[in-house]
Design a protein that fits this description.
Elements: H1 6-14, E1 18-19, E2 21-27, E3 30-36, E4 39-43, E5 48-54, H2 60-65, E6 68-73, H3 79-86, E7 113-125, E8 128-140, E9 147-149, E10 152-154
Length: about 160
């Protein structure tokens, strides 16, 4: 069977609704953050999650090499954080400061959940690296999540 047309593939994937996360860490050059919708639980025992990082992302090397990282699950009113950290380059940090958390990772305002992870593995995933983290700490709130579907932010109907 021939490979799927790249645009058809992208259109099909756009129909997958997902939560939105901001992955944060720190390397020798400073704070790292990127928006990631490719996030998933992996295992309950041990507690593992995964996030997929584009090989072309400027923060790729630092995130993959970090000893640990934080997955910040965004709340419905945090689309601005998602948009900010989807940008490339250091200007995403202009005008914003965040407290430092475990592993030196910046901590954005609490959203729906926060997972502190130790680096567990980094696996080949085609044009992405699959970063696996062992969850060391989890916090949750009752705030509704930010959802991304069909190339836009959505809110859950309650």
């Amino acid at each position: 069977m021939p490979d799927v047309d790249p645009q058809e593939f992208r259109n099909a994937l756009a129909r997958w609704a997902s939560g939105v996360t901001v992955l944060t860490a720190r390397d020798a050059h400073g704070p790292l953050a990127m928006t990631a919708a490719s996030f998933s639980s992996l295992s309950l025992d041990p507690p593992l999650v995964l996030v997929c990082i584009d090989l072309g992302a400027l923060s790729h090397a630092g995130l993959v090499a970090a000893e640990g990282f934080v997955v910040n699950v965004l709340a419905a009113d945090q689309a601005d954080l998602s948009t900010r950290f989807a940008r490339r380059g250091p200007e995403k940090w202009e005008g914003i400061t965040m407290p430092e958390g475990p592993y030196g990772a910046p901590l954005p305002p609490m959203g729906t959940a926060r997972l502190v992870c130790a680096h567990h593995a980094a696996l080949d995933g085609g044009d992405h690296t699959i970063l696996v983290g062992r969850v060391e700490h989890a916090e949750v709130t009752d705030r509704p999540p930010l959802v991304f579907w069909n190339r836009g932010y959505r809110e859950l109907a309650g």
